[in-house]
Amino acid sequence: MTDEAPGGDRRRLIGLIVGAVATALVVVLLVVGLMNRGQSTTIDDALAAGSRPPAPDITLPVLVTGPGLPPVGQQASLADLKGKVVLLNLWASWCGPCKDEAPVLERIWTQYRDKGVVVLGIDIQDLTSDALAFVKEYGLTYPSLRDGSDDSKTALEATGVPETFLIDRQGRVALHLAGPVSSTTQLSGPIDQVLAEK
After folding, report:
1. Alpha carbon of residue 181 to chain centroid
2. Cα–Cα dist 148/150, whole Å
3. Are 191 and 104 in contact (CB under 8 A)?
4. How many CB atoms lie within 10 A of CB 179?
5. Which of 16, 108, 114, 167 sits CB 3.0–4.6 Å from 86 for a disulfide?
6. Bond from prior residue into 97 cis (ω within 30 degrees of 0)
7. Could you tell me if 168 and 194 are in contact, meaning their C-beta atoms sit under 8 angstroms apart?
8. How far is CA 78 from CA 25, 73, 81, 116, 182, in A?
9. How far, in Å, CA of 137 to CA of 46, rounded?
10. How far is CA 59 from the centre of its chain?
């Protein structure tokens, strides 16, 4: 006779199954991560070769409007901003590094908007209400679009959030930064260089 409560074997079996499934999931994620590690994209390949690939034409609804963009809810296209330097940032309200970089992007917007630079956010994998709460919490005034389907992430060959793309006046990608923007100086040099181009 055992002191074990009825159903103890069943709970132990369920625990073992859950543990095995969790372990298998971790292994699969590690394998996928290792397979994709070091994988470059066509955008990154072009930049590494010294050329600037054309930015994809992304059309999405406006989440927060700004210069050169239609009112909230209407469709806006990246092509509408051709002729301006665009700092395009993929973000989400649930993204920890996005919270850290939001004030930095706001400072870049404040510093460069009168020089013809548009900081443009694209909120992905998010609820509109959460995205708007994020914008309010961090006092963001730069415009953002809303991508509920990840089309922009796919078009830009992004692997996650945050990711930032500097787009020149001709609509070409001049810089791709995977990961958070940690300071204004991280982007001020590239932005100044692109602004100086005729």
Report:
1. 11
2. 6
3. no
4. 12
5. 167
6. no
7. yes
8. 38, 15, 6, 15, 25
9. 37
10. 16
DSSP β-bridge partners for residue 178: 163
Q: In this predicted model, what pLDDT tens digit does every residue of 13-35 receive, in sequence order?
A: 887 887 777 676 555 545 444 44
pTM of the entire predicted model: 0.79
Domain boundaries, the chain: 1-39, 42-196
The answer to whether the CB of 154 falls within 8 A of the CB of 124 is no
Query: Which spans in the chain are helix H?
Result: 8-36, 42-48, 96-112, 128-137, 151-155, 185-196
> Considering the domain 42-196, what is its CATH architecture?
3-Layer(aba) Sandwich (3.40)
For residue 67, give every residue at least 6 positions away whose Cβ sits within 8 Å of its Cβ, in sequence order, or none.
Answer: 113, 118, 143
49-66 pLDDT, tens digit per residue, is: 999 999 999 999 999 999
Length of the chain: 198
Q: What is the DSSP letter of 59?
A: E
